[in-house]
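To: structure desk
From: M.T.
Subject: fold request, one chain
Message: Could you run this one when you get a chance? Sequence is below, nothing fancy, just the single chain.
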Amino acid sequence: MSWQAYVEGPSSLVGQGKLKAAAIIDVAGDSNWACTTGFNLQPDEAKNLANYISSGKDDLYGTGFYAGTKKFKCILMEPGVIIGKEGKEGIIIMKAEKCIFIGYHPAEVDTRDGRSAVQGVVDYLRGLGY
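Reply: Done. Structure tokens follow.
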């Protein structure tokens, strides 16, 4: 399986036209499985995001979080989902069984549309056991 195809292929996270950048990491945040060119998710950011989404703690509302060297304000935390905003830009993080999907949308895309793009790929791969 080529994870890169789920990030940049025709029906992928970015291929749907709603996201500007995306990454797939393992659930522990130790390994970057796929990433769009130019999306600079740092190793400590990946580890922190994995810890946040796995812990279920809602302390990100006060502190925000970093992804791709940008700081995002947390606007939603629910089981398996974190959504952050920086101005009108946003990031959607969703956890599946074996991996975590991260999608970054530009200002001209509504966060709900970005979430829908990530959710579609996550649901498909969950159906395959990931």
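Reply (cont.): Helices lie at 3-8, 43-55, 60-63, 111-127. Let me know if you need anything else for the meeting.
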